[in-house]
Amino acid sequence: MSDNYVLEQQSSYESGSDNSDYPVHVYKHKRTEFRVVVCQVPGPICNLAMCIPTVCLDHKGKPHTLEHMVFCGSEKYPYRGYIDAVSSHNLGQPLNASTYDDMTVFKYVGLSQEGAANVLPVVLDHIMHPLIQDSQFATEVYHVDQDGRQQGVVLSEMSDFAYRESAVRSLNMRQLIFPPTSTYAWECGGLPQSIESLSIDEVIDYHKEFYSYSNLTLILVGAYDERPTAIFNVLDSLDVEISASPPPLRRPMPPMLSKWSKGRKDFLFASEKSQTGSMTFAWEGPPAEDIETCVALEMLIDYLKTDQGSPLRKRFTHRPMPIAGNIEFGLLNYIPTAIVLSFTEVPFVAYISHAAAAAASPVKRRIGAPAMTYPSPADTCGPLDLSKLHDDINSLFASNYYRKQLVSMLTYLAEHWLSEHWQHFSSFLSKRTACISTKFADVAMSQKDQQGILYKLSRDAVLHCLSPGSANTAQPTFGSRGRLFSLRRELGQRDCAFWKALVQKWFLNERMLHIATIPDPKMGIQIEAERNLAQRSYMENINPAELKAIQTRLERALESTKVNIPHDLLAALPPTPDIALVQMPQFTGYNFNYSNDPLLAESPFGMGRVLVVPGEVESKFQISFPLAGLSSELWPYLPLFVKLVTMQVGLVIPHMVADTVLQDSCFVSTKPSGMPLLYLNSEQVDSAMSEALTEHKAFIGDHYGHDISGQWPIEVLTLFGSTKRKDFLRAFKLTSLKMMFGDFGVDTILKAANQLKKELIAIRGTGASLLIDTFPWLRNPGQLDATAIAKYDPFDNSTHAMASHVGSESFGRALNLYYQIAFLTTLTRSLSTAMNEDDMLATEADSMSDAITQIRAHFANCNSATGLAHIAVSKCNDAVEARDTLNTFVSEWQACSSAWRENHQVVTVPATPYELPALLSNSRRIYTPPRKRRKALVAVPAKEPIKLSPNSRVGSREFSAVSPPLGIHVTLANLQTSYVGIQVPLIAQRDPSDTRLVSLARQLEKRPDTDMYALQLLCILFNRSEGLVKNAIRGRGYAYGVGIHPNNNNGNLAVYISHAGDPLKATTAFWGVMEQLRYEAGWNEAVNEFQLSAARSIYYFRAYTGFAESLASEDSNCIFRGFSGVEELLPWMRSHVEDIKIADLRRAFLKYFMPFITKDAPSLYVVATPQFMPETGAEFLRQLNSNAYGARFKAIDMSVLDPIVTI
User: Fold this and answer.
1) Angle at 1183 (CA atoms; ends 1177, 1185), nearest 5 degrees
2) In whole angstroms, what is the distance from residue 778 CA to residue 784 CA?
3) Contact residues for 798 (Cβ-Cβ < 8 A; gap 6+)
């Protein structure tokens, strides 16, 4: 046991549940200020983080640059990629790092204490003794190549980030409130024009100043012992170095500027679109050590931002004509803290420039008059009727207009709203505290979430170094937010006067900063033009000797990027920890085959599953309804239907179920006599759902989180809910009632369609969207697929896209972003016109409303028995209790669907499962008695799964290939770097075949998924931080991001390259790696047993952390894949992964990767670049077409891909 460390503090974090808290122990080195913080959290994950407070006083990005340089090797381990190899070898993911405004955090996440101890000495040597050499600096940070092009990983990363609207408003806001001596006044990541002047000596000096053991805090969060022996043994071996550490750095941050600008400050940002801008307001917050006030402000801000009925929402976003699209509101962890409120997507309709806004201002300043100041709160106060807001948006960017609206709202909040809506406000605080506490277990181990323990402990370390209130204290206080939930409950008991005073003190009495960010469509063009001009000037003024020196430096730099780790060093590494010893959550599964019960032959569900996870805080339901049989004309409406289900709407309930609904204590209502329907307003429904559910979602597919616009999801619609066990059934009842009886009138449909369209347009044209959404649009056969684009000629009208009628596209294409934007544009235009009493479009609007009704009819009458009813609970004694629990869910759905059928009776039976009966009008509706409730479910063995959703992937793997292979080049004004994507077809077996025919054990004997698992391991090998592909592209500074993604469900193997400074070199480097590996010599040099072992380790880490973080969701997904649950997937996966040999990797490479470099093989390319490049468009296209693999590129405008949808 180490005696170099003493126990300095003990505290804990409330777990948020009834389970025990998470203990925190702080150990201090006896002779220095180096500390080890251990927070014990149950589960398989072990977080290991090293936090260093870092300050910057310029825009050169020194802390960010140093973070990158740490990964390039160390004095003891001078091999690029060694730190990645060690991390990957120990059941963990490669080391990662994040640079914040005031700290840098290096993070390793693994599955065992043993693995963390193996990684620790290597990480510490890289942090304390990095190799900061010119060769690595050139590729990782910045260099100018022989063509005069600026490149480097850091430069590429920041070139896009620095010009985003959010980055522009954040940096300018900070520079207006913080003095130049504060780190918050500068961009820690670096600005492109400043990165150019950064020298390697500056980075070395910065490391000497900030990187020492006395400034470093080692943080362990996860499945650790109270005093992990292996970790302290490593630290004892480094004790001589730790003891020699210089005194800690104390640099208290200065206070905010004493004078803030009184007038609004305007800033431009580069945007291809000029319709919307943003308004940002900032106030000085309390000291970071004042936890009570900070938490109280966070609770108030959460209410104003989150509650759909808050005065902030009603005043700005939830009104007939919104004057903001969204609200970003938060208390930022600066020193001191800052309160920042941003209104985004503010309509910029009437103003083209600052001058126009000033000219239209209702307040004009006389010549010689003093500078205009904002009116006091007393001048702008007055009664405000939030229900009668005018819709005049012509003055939004006038100099004082927006601020006046905000001050009026805040004043009204303090003087009237809180007292008049006190019950609702206090109820919201109570519900949110319960929700956040129950969800804490999901984010406690997150290395990114700011609610996670790792981030909070890091902030405690930074406060001790940088806060004026803490820098002179004897020791830092770790676990300062350990009592968060108790504190929230205590604050929730405060009276109305407390919250009024909070608003008055921090929002009305404090000074306010106001800035506007205004779109400038020409800025991006100007930035790129200036960059190109600088490149030409550079090349014109350079002499041959200088050019030769540049080439020599680059050759040396490129040589240094090669990963050459001695084999004996790798062989000396400790063995990979045993995956069998990793702690997995305990669970039991009960399966029920509904198809065996003749009484359930007409059920939408083919299987029921009850997952019992002891200790789970919440119960969850995930009910998947099959879409097989839904008319193709209704497919485009599905995303809109999902949006409606998740919106805040009222309920229109028929009397046959009204009595049942009114039994719910949440609804205080009286059933009106003589009326066929009961109406419950949206606030009643939202209140009931927020009481019963901590989380609820609706989504297309079998799991939440995948991008349906970029994938072809399993053809099910899923309702998900998370709740306390006592509210379990009630929560599902409310969710299903909202799905079937929500008030989805024409006005609600229009509102939902506008919101959905706005969300899709916001992501369209971004780099990720270009690759994720464009490929499936081209790949899957349809009216604007690759075949059509290959024939497109801008000068030949006969090749232009024709109008697409609803129902003419396949399922996946109907959900694609390109189709959805066009479809929603047509729908919103028609509905808006119809609501303005245009009789010509009234029929069309009725058809759109009827489409939503027909989707409901599909679910109410669905009897395909291919859906899944999946619930997860913390306690269940046996299969009988599990069956009874599931019975109640099915019965609730039967009651809901039966009531809907009786109220919307159909009179025809579909001839085929793909035809929907037409619904008759009310005047001709025929009523029949509702179906009888079905008998109890019958339990069947879990080893007899059925085939769920049999039509779920029809057409998803079709690849619309053309000969020669098609590549498209598009330019966008808002891009500062380039994006490249390549896809080739992929067909490989994944998961078991029908186990009713051949048992799982018999199938497993033959390892049928060997090719797919070998391909996944090979992609992991390529994608590692220093893997072959990533190192060839990112390691040489050609691009910031690169990844290879096998997607067997959707039939493609994809390569995505993002933030590329040189897309041609990046693509050529990828081809070069493929060419190297096609030959045995190159393969044998690059791929070995150690790399295979590391790939297995990473695969296990990802799989097991996925199970630990969302076991219920993963379990549900397993059933759709043909397993009875996770208990069958685990041995299937481990058997395949452990059995993979180098020969299997080789076979997978030759089978799946060779099409990338086989001439005229089926493939698709997308290259997106800034609008202005060093080369002319024709020259760039010529260079693209000079490839050796037969791909033929054509330049098109993005609008060519837009369909014209008719409804």
Assistant:
1) 100
2) 7
3) none
Residue range 660-680, pLDDT digits in tens: 666 654 565 545 555 567 888
Alpha-carbon distance 761 to 1051, whole Å? 27
703 to 547, 979, 1107: CA distances (angstroms):
54, 28, 13
591 by Cβ neighbours in 10 Å (0-12 / 13-18 / 19+) ranks as buried
Counting Cα atoms < 13 Å in the Cβ hemisphere of 755 gives 21
User: What's the one-letter identity of residue 1004?
Assistant: L
DSSP reduced 3-state for 678:
strand
Question: By the 8 A CB rule, do 401 and 324 touch?
Answer: no
Residue partners of 852: CB distance under 8 A and separation at least 6: 637, 640, 641, 644, 744, 749
Rounded distance, CA 1058 to CA 1033, Å?
10
Residues 6 or more apart in contact with residue 172 via CB below 8 angstroms: 265, 267, 515, 517
Instruction: Give the pLDDT confidence of 933-961 residue by residue, as tens digits.
Output: 333 333 333 334 444 544 444 457 788 87
Token code pair at residue 358: 């000033």
**What DSSP character marks residue 188?**
T
Element (H, E) at 984: strand 978-985
Residue with tokens 């100007």: 526
Read off the pLDDT of each residue in 645-656 and give the average, rounded to a whole number: 85
Residue 434 phi/psi, 5° resolution?
-65, -40
Distances (CA, A) of 532 to 217, 546, 582, 970, 1013: 44, 20, 54, 18, 45
- For 206, what's the count of Cα atoms within 13 Å in the CB-facing half-sphere? 27
Consecutive H or E run containing 163: none
Crossing angle of helices 153-161 and 62-69, in 10° steps, is 140
d(CA 498, CA 425): 13
The torsion angle over the Cα atoms of residues 1087, 1088, 1090 and 1092, rounded to 10 degrees, is 60
> Do 316 and 323 form a contact (C-beta atoms < 8 A)?
yes
Q: How far is CA 573 from the centre of its chain?
A: 35
For position 914, what pLDDT does the model report? 31
Residue 549 corresponds to which amino acid? A
Secondary structure of residue 12 in the 3-state scheme? strand
Could you give the CA distance from residue 57 to residue 235 in angstroms, rounded to a whole number? 33
**Dist. CA 1175–CA 822, nearest whole Å:** 33
Q: Kindly write down the DSSP assignment for every residue of 422-436, as one continuous string.
A: HHHHHHHHHHHHHHH
Q: What is the pLDDT of residue 934?
A: 31
Q: What is the DSSP string of 497-547?
A: HHHHHHHIIIIISS--EEEEEEEETTHHHHHHHHHHHHHHHHHHH--HHHH
What pLDDT is recorded for position 231? 96
Phi, psi (deg, nearest 5) at residue 475? -150, 150
In whole angstroms, give the CA distance from residue 964 to residue 1189.
9
Angle between helices 817-835 and 746-763 in degrees, nearest 10:
140
End-to-end, the C-alpha distance of the chain in Å comes to 75
Task: Say how far apart CA 213 and CA 968 lie, in whole Å.
Answer: 52
Are 1050 and 957 in contact by the 8 Å Cβ rule? The answer is: yes
The alpha carbon dihedral of 183, 185, 187, 192 has a sign of negative
The owner of tokens 């790092």 is: 97
**290 and 364 Cβ atoms separated by less than 8 Å:** no
User: Rg of the Cα trace of the chain?
Assistant: 31
Backbone phi, psi, residue 725, to 5°: -60, -35
Give dist(CA 973, CA 520) in Å, integer.
11
Average pLDDT over residues 137-146: 88
Eight-state DSSP code of residue 135: H
The pair of structure tokens assigned to 70 is: 């740490």
- Residue 268's DSSP bridge partners are 518
Q: Considering Cα of 391, then 392, then 396, then 400, what sign does the dihedral take?
A: negative
1174 within 8 A of 147, measured Cβ to Cβ: yes
Cis amide prior to 322 (ω within 30 degrees): no
